[in-house]
User: Fold this.
Amino acid sequence: MDYLQLEKKLKKEINTIYSLHSITIEDFIQEFLNNIVLFQKQKKISSKFLENLDIPYFLISKSLKILEKYLSQEIYKLEELISKTYLKRGAIELLSFLNHQYTDKLLFLPHNKFIQQIHDSLLKNDLSLFPKKHFQDCEFQQILNYPKAKMILRNNIKELEKLHNSMHIIANTLYKALNEKKFSDAVFILENFKETVLKFIQLISEAYFEAYENIENRFFGVVEYFHQKKDIYLTIIDVKNLKYLNIIYGENTINKALKILRKRIEYFMKSDYKKTITIKAESTNFYMMNIDYSSLEYQLLINHIYQTMTAPIEIEGTVVTLPVIIGGILLPKYFNVKDKSIYTSSLMLIKKKAKQEKVDIKLIEFDKELKDLLKEKEKELYVLQKINNKEIDIVFQPIYQTQTGKIFSLEVLGRICEKGTLISIGEYIDKIYELNLIEKFDTLILEKLIEKEHLIKKVTNKIFLNISFQSLLNKEYMSKLRYFLQNFQIEIILELTEQKFVSDIELIKKIYDDYKIKFAVDDFGTGYSSLQLVLELNEMGILEILKIDGSLIKELDNKSNLKKVIKIISELGKNFNLITVAEFVENEKILNILKEINIDLAQGYYLSMPLPIEKLHNISSSQH
Assistant:
């Protein structure tokens, strides 16, 4: 019998055997399936079944492999069905993330569509709908450079970029798993994607919340950021006569109209996010910043905004037309702004100009008037910062006896500390008064006197101190002044320069009675220092010193009539037992004239510049 005949015979016998015992094999498989739980726990099947088992082992082995393959296929199908169910559930949950209060805001717009497409792809089991996009190609990367994004995100941009990149990488990994039909893997990837999306949404939502809590500061912060790089247009948009409108239409109607107005502006500016940012402000209705605009483009934009805002608005059957005023300015990059409030000052000035000129739109270039105003504002901020930071020091200008040349006393002068140098307060004194900082300034001067009293005593036991009327009414200041007088053997002579002192001699008398301080009338011959004031204070025994106004002394060597005037003042002083002091002595000729006409004391740059007390101590020592 050849090999082929033998093979056929064996196959026939095997098939015959298999057919005879097929029911038993089916019973075996069914028994196993029926007892699968028992088998898992006890690792055995009923003994009766095993005892009656009379099938050849190789047939059982073959049957089990068929079963294994069949079950594997069915399990795969089951797993695929379950995975797709969970993917659909995940897709529905993913879409629900878009239901938040900021969903229509700029920073969410690119990914609203992105997430919607992933949702649709998973729900419809259609990979052609899945958005395959690298994070660098996403519109969001460009939006991060927009003015509004800078305003909202501020310090969160880098963290957000990391989340954004991760979100796209995970989404692409999800697509790959779905494409390779690895649905179980896709479920886990989707969970990771949802967590990243949620963090992304939470971070941006928190940024929006924080920004809107302090919207004006955020706005002018981003204005400052772009102004450092390029020219900018700043605009203020305001509704005129709001109080009058509230009376006519009712506050509720006007508030609704303003909300519609806000939506109109936001809708109008949506197409220009790259170059524009607009906010609803607290101190006015709207602020707007524009970058990379030509003058013509800016003018056209403002005209369109004006038309949009003045279009009639219907509120519950009532038609309201809101009168609008728009002020705009070009701020060049070269103009250095040291504080954000400079921007608001410039806008308020333009609005004021528009009202004065009775126009609804006022657009100006950077003119001299505005430049001067902004410089004044910067001066205010500079003074405010220096006083609040206690960056104030004192110097002393000696007052000399004209006949002997010896130091009689020192005048205390305030200075601003600036990078190791001391700057005269003269340029800023008006601002100090305007900002109601004079009491704080005077207190800082007094604190410096207390700090340096041991050095002052080595030069003199008498000082002249300029003091404001407000400070004499300030309890804290007067308490420190009393401490100085009680603890240090230095006499203080207070200089009177303000009109308020002239009109409140009773206060001067009270200070004298309470503190035994004598006074000097400053700027005698001009200003507020009248002869009547001198006579009244002298009669009370309060006045000791008569300081002649420096504007008279400066011209003493050029105008002969001034010499006569100063001589009369000198004789007046002698008659009333007052010490006379000449300020602004700037050359030897003036000093000699003062000696000749018997002026007692002199001070000025010719004799000595104002100096720190340490240097004056050396000068005083050399005199002895």
